[in-house]
Amino acid sequence: MSVVAVFDIGKTNVKLFAATGSGTILEELSAPNRVQDGPPYRHHDLDALEGWLLDGLADLGRRHPIEAIVACSHGSGGVLVGPDVAAMPMIDYEQDPPPDITADYAGMAGSFRDRGSAVMLGSAHLARQMLWLERGWPDAFARATAFLALPQYWAFRLCGVAASEVTSLAAQSHLWSGADGRPTPLVARRGWEHLLPPMRPAFETLGTLKPELARRCGLPPGTRVVCGIHDSSANFYRYQAAGLSDLTVISTGTWIVALTDRTGVDLDTETPGLSCNADVFGRPVPGILTMGGREFAAVADGADGPATLEALRRCVASRTVVLPSFGADDGLFPGTSRRGRIHGPLAGDPSVRFTLALLYAALLASQCLQALPASRTVVLDGGLVRDPLFGAIMAALNPTVRVLVDRDPHGTATGAALLATHEARRGLAPLAAEAPDVYGLPDLLPYWSHWRDLTHPGARAS
């Protein structure tokens, strides 16, 4: 059995998985993704991370016959590179650029259709990172040969081939319009075309592991290096590889992220939470995101789960509701930041707090669904589905669609591993997802209608 090594780069932690070609996780290594304060700015230590990666590949390679390597990452990491190495340190995307960069960028970022996301804080967009590097270090910028999104940077370091990739660039980089499948006008205006290498599919083998790295890791010289993918797109791909379509995926973590393969979204008009990513085939993937995980945590306030049917019935019968938003971000409700509160007779009852938080998160997730075209199937995954009532509540709130729950905690790594077998796969990838049990739940639609009256008067649950 050949094995795929998946390098999953998160903002806080990095993970290295050994997985089968069908996506089954065999082993996992992890480490903090540390940043250094500077100079020249807060940045990730790529040299240390590369050492960890190579040591991890050697470690996993002693127990598993690794045949391919693929990286996946969040969408706000990029590296300016020269012929062989990074030309500048990788900017920590939570680092604020100088005020003049922030101000100038706001005026040049373009339309929402071009951007595919809101203009976010810090250095979240690769285009804003490039502007900062171009202005602050013009000599290094002029000598650079490419600017690579993070999955493709690691592929470049492993095999020496520079590539661009559509899911990575369509994820809030502001360098690629997912809606139109082309570079944004900003790229041409800044003369950055030469820094974006040719576009290659996420599942394409770019080359083989450099001989010196293969020797260091003890891996076969023919070990393939796959182009790589954005993390949410990798998770979405795992369901596409299982044969699902007419599909919306709702992933729950710090963010609640809803992505759909349905068309019909107005991508010319910016609305709260709206985004437009791409799938591995370059097709637009509209989405809605909100910081639902942090909202859940603020309401739960340390209360232990699991949620209970008794507490759910009490909350619904008393019409005790949670109103947004507790965090500094308005989320889906403009003007609500830091105005979140619990309203109703059980507002001070600690015995219902965890269940109320879970119900609130399900309402937020359902609100995301309402903002997208209706799909035949909705798949739920991520941290909140560990509580059985989350899926059940979602099914009760959305009775006209098929709701499935996938409790596999490694969706991103599974999807990335499946890329390595994309071109050779002859059947559907396995998927263990199940319909939630809604037995005994109260009627939640009047409760949802009441919540919507309070959060945005005049709206109604469909």
Structure characteristics:
462 residues; alpha+beta; Nucleotidyltransferase, domain 5; 2 domains; seven-stranded mixed sheet; six-stranded mixed sheet; globular
Task: Outline the structure in words.
The protein is an alpha+beta fold and 462 residues long. It folds into two domains: 3-227, ATPase, nucleotide binding domain (Nucleotidyltransferase, domain 5, 2-Layer Sandwich), CATH 3.30.420; 231-462, Nucleotidyltransferase, domain 5, CATH 3.30.420.40. The chain is 33% helix and 21% strand. It contains 16 helices and 22 strands. It has helices at 46-61, 99-108, 112-115, 126-136, 138-143, 150-159, 166-169, 185-190, 211-217, 231-241, 292-300, 309-318, 353-370, 388-397, 411-419, 445-455, and strands spanning 3-9, 13-20, 25-32, 35-36, 43-44, 66-73, 78-81, 90-91, 146-149, 176-177, 182-183, 205-208, 224-226, 229-230, 247-252, 256-260, 274-278, 284-290, 321-323, 341-343, 377-382, 402-405. The strands form six sheets. Strands 1, 2, 3, 6, 12, 13 and 14 form a seven-stranded mixed beta sheet that branches. A six-stranded mixed beta sheet has the order 17-18-16-15-21-22, with helices on both faces. Helix 10 crosses helix 15 and helix 11 (292-300) packs antiparallel against helix 13. The longest helix has 18 residues, at 353-370. It starts with a strand and ends in a 7-residue tail after the last helix.
